[in-house]
Amino acid sequence: MTSDLTIQPFTQVDPKYLECCDLLYRYYKKTHATVAPLTANYATFIDEVPTKTGFYNLNQKNEIENVVFTENNEIAYICSINHKNCEAFIQATLRKIFSKYNEIFFEADDTDWAATLLLDQFNFNKNESFNTYIYD
């Protein structure tokens, strides 16, 4: 991992927290629309979905581009608006988490390009798959 990208930590009391939540809501809604459309409204989503800590990075216009919501050694959610530097953001985040923990865990599905990019940072048998089916 060779990224020099600067990442910032956040907590629920950080002024950037709601901006991180907003990006996650928009990203999640867009990336999951075809397989599991988001039914929660924004307020419910913010109250129930994100963890209260994580990391983000800013672009040159001081706008949030990439966010991970974390809880200890779990990456609960990842979202991005920048395909070009998301991998560098992921690498910087992984370095930060691995500096504190020996292992991490996360869930990644193939409808989510940022989560797939996170998954691609690891060596494993990609032919092994765990599928989720929803009975409607």
Automatic annotation (TrEMBL):
<protein>
    <recommendedName>
        <fullName>GNAT family acetyltransferase</fullName>
    </recommendedName>
</protein>
